[in-house]
Task: structure prediction
Amino acid sequence: MKVKVIVTLKSGVLDPQGKAIQQTLNGMGFANVKDVRQGKYFDIDIDENDEQKAKQSAEEICKKLLANQVIEDFKII
Amino acid sequence: MNSSVIIFPGSNCDRDMDVALKKFGFKNKMVWHDDDELPNSDLIVLPGGFSYGDYLRCGSIAGKSKIIQSVIDFANSGGLVLGICNGFQILTETGLLKGVLQQNKNIEFICKNIFVKVNNSENKFFENIDKDVLELHIAHNEGNYFCSEDELKSLEDNNQIAAYYCSSDGKVDDKSNPNGAIKNIAGIFNEKKNILGMMPHPERMIDQSLSGEDGSIFFENLLKNL
Result:
């Protein structure tokens, strides 16, 4: 089954790319954009029919590789 | 003294490091990342470059390669490990060193000479070094060292900060911080000080006619301490 994972920077961690995007949007006229945080999205196909087991694998994958938990959080959706 | 330089797909400072180590008298071997075992070594070097094209996060894929378990075992048994630039990133990704190297604060790839102040010389890397301000070279997009406040406190308490970015006369200030690194940190040790990770490249400063020679001071001193 397919598992979707989103990895984002923890709040408080500087995100210079997000900041640049926000400033560009402001410059383009989107004056109401107050903040942008950039993240990563993963579509993972796991050979597993049991949703619980697939999500368990995904969690381990996130902890061991996809997210660096010093600065990043992950969400499995 | 025997050294080994690990080559990952995308490493690009491996041969510079080989030249530097041999110039100062190391018997150096190049080791492929997919090998199982390390040759008998007094020093393991993880070189600079862009292993695996910096995919996912800098150093994250290289940090899972086959040879890394041997590097971790070697380091945990007290062996000397040096990670330069991408090598530093790999060391943080394996957990051998604390923290993480984030994208430079100004979102620019920085390639220039900088100065670092050696902060701790009670270790094999810097013991008895003649100069405490060294002119070295940096070339990176992700050199902005970051760690949690607790980690920073423990790095400071255990004297694990190896070097700070500074001015030519050794002043550690915001102006001499090239990439936004927390507290101007250019390099750190593990707790036992047998693992050193730093962003600046000493191997690029070993020839007066090409650059400078403060890298020579680093390598000559390291060899003397082994």
About this structure: Chain A has one domain: 2-76.
